[in-house]
Amino acid sequence: MINISTNMIISFRGVYMEKIIGTFVRIYVKENQRCEAFGKKPLNKVIAEMALKMDITDFVEYKVFEGYIFDKKLHTLAREVIDHELPIIIEFFTTDEKAQKFLEEMAPYLKNTVVLVFRDTEGYFFR
Predict the structure, then answer these.
(1) pTM for the whole structure
(2) Averaged over 106-113, what is the pLDDT?
């Protein structure tokens, strides 16, 4: 549960809508990036494990079909079967404190990545 700011609102037809305000983080990595400090484990797996360890619960990872990071060379699913350079997008939503701690812990390992941080982001859980 996000503890920054929540309001319980009863929506129409008995559906509960919980307003939440927190920090949304989006990280772009290449699927072939490895983390030397973690035994050459894929960086996206290191990020996922660190988020889980830090009790960040709203976490998702997308593998894209086409795109580029830094090199401005378009990578597509059809061409990357061998090279594995497609971008992976990792997103999570949590408290500002957890996001800040996560970024401080992961900063040494995030070389050649893009990290976007959106503070005071409003969202809703429907129950």
Answers:
(1) 0.79
(2) 94
